[in-house]
Amino acid sequence: MHLPMNRSEVTETWLLDTLSVLQEFLADPVDSIRLEPMNDGIGQLSIMVIADLVLVSGKKLQLIIKLQTDVPSMHDIGLRYGYYENEVNFYRFFSDKVPMRTPTVFVAEFDRAAGRVLLIMESFSGWHSQDQVKGASLEQITTATRSLAGLTAAFWNTPLQEEHSWIHSLTSEVFSNIANDYRESVEEALNRLNGSLPESAAANARKIGGCFDDLIIRLSEGNQALAHWDYRVENFFYGPNSEFVVIDWQLMMMTRPAADLAYLLGTNIDPELRRSSENELMEIYLEELARHGVTDYSRMQLEQDYRLGMLGASGIPIIGGAGVDRTNARSSSLFQAMGGRLFQAIEDWDAMALLTD
C-alpha cells in the first residue's frame, strides 16, 4: 500500500485503488469520490483530507484521511516520541479495549523508514467538536470528565506494557530526551507564547525544565493508569443523542491518574470557569471512579496527582509551542490558549511547590 508523502498525493485514483482491496468495499464498491482538504491548524501532528464517497448502491459515506504533518519541527516530534506508530498500534491492537467510542478505522499503516503514516477512518459529519481556542462549556467538560473516569478505572494499575510493549510511560526509551527537549524549548516557546501567559509562567517554565528529570520519575511512580495525554475538546465529538467519541490517540501512555483531568480542565476552559467548576468536576471524577470499582483513591491523592499532571502537561505547550508552524495563525492561537490557561492553573494550584531545586 502506498503511503502518501503529502496532501497532493491523496488523489481520487489513489484512494479508489486503496479502498478497492478492503473487505468493507468489496460488496459495495466506491462509485465516486470528492476530496476536500481539512482546515490547517486542527491537527498539530497531522494533515487531513475529507473524502466524500458515493458507493455503487447509492449509499453516501464520509471518511477522514490522516497523514503525517508537513511541518518539519512537528514531524520530528511525531517521529522522535513514537506518536505516529503509537496511534497505528492503538487502532490495530487496542481500540476495542477502551471503554469509550473511538472511530472505525479502515486503514492504519506506518512506515518507519519513510517516516509516513496513513489512517483512513470514519468521519463524524453532523456531530459537534468544540473550538478549543474559544473554550468548552461546562456541559461539554462534564461529559468528558465522566467518560475519562471510565478510561482511568479500566486500566488502573494494570501492567499493560507486559502485553503491549508499544504502550509507553515517560521513563520509556522513546522519551529519553524529553527533559532536555523541554529545557531547549523553553525560551523559544516563551517568545512565541508571549502575551498569552501569566507573569509567573516564564520563571515557572524554566524551573519545571530544570526539574523535569525528577518530574518524569514522580509521574511514573505510585498509582498508574492509561492516559490519552491529549485529552482536549478538539479530540472529542459530541453526537445528537448524547454520544461521545474520542479521537487522536497518538500520545497515549501510562502515567499517574488525573494527568488527563489536569490537562482537560487546565487547557480547555477559561480560568474563571475552571475555578468555579473544578471542585464539582473533581467530585464527579471520584464518584465515577468509585462506580467503576476504584474505591481506594482519595481526594487528597487526586489533588496531588492533579498538580503533578499540570506540571507534566506543560511539556505540550512548551515543546509543541516551540515547534508549531508560526505562519499558521490558528495553530499559534491554539498553543497560546493552552499555555496561558495551563500556566494560570499551575499558579492557582501552587503546583510549583511540588518541585525541589
Q: How is this structure best described in words?
A:
The protein has 357 residues and is an alpha+beta fold. The protein has 2 domains: 7-122, Phosphorylase Kinase, domain 1 (2-Layer Sandwich); 138-354, Alpha-Beta Complex (Aminoglycoside 3'-phosphotransferase, Chain: A, domain 2). The chain has 12 helices and 10 strands. The chain has helices at residues 12-20, 72-80, 83-93, 138-154, 178-192, 201-210, 212-219, 259-268, 271-291, 299-313, 315-323, 329-348; strands spanning 30-37, 46-55, 60-68, 105-111, 116-122, 168-169, 225-227, 236-238, 244-246, 253-255.
Could you give a quick summary of the protein structure above?
With 357 residues, the protein is α+β, with helices and mostly antiparallel strands.
Which short descriptors sum up this protein?
357 residues; alpha+beta; Phosphorylase Kinase, domain 1; Aminoglycoside 3'-phosphotransferase, Chain: A, domain 2; three-stranded mixed β-sheet; 12 helices
Task: Tell me the β content.
Answer: 15-25%
What is the overall shape?
globular
- How many distinct domains? 2
Tell me the CATH architecture of the largest domain. Alpha-Beta Complex
User: In DSSP terms, counting alpha (H) and pi (I) runs of 4 or more, how many helices?
Assistant: 12
Compressed to H and E, one letter per element, the order equals HEEEHHEEHEHHHEEEEHHHHH
Kindly state the percentage of residues in helix: 40-55%
**DSSP, total strands:** 10
Order of strands in the sheet with the most strands? 1-2-3-5-4
Largest sheet: 5 strands, antiparallel
CATH topology of the largest domain: Aminoglycoside 3'-phosphotransferase, Chain: A, domain 2
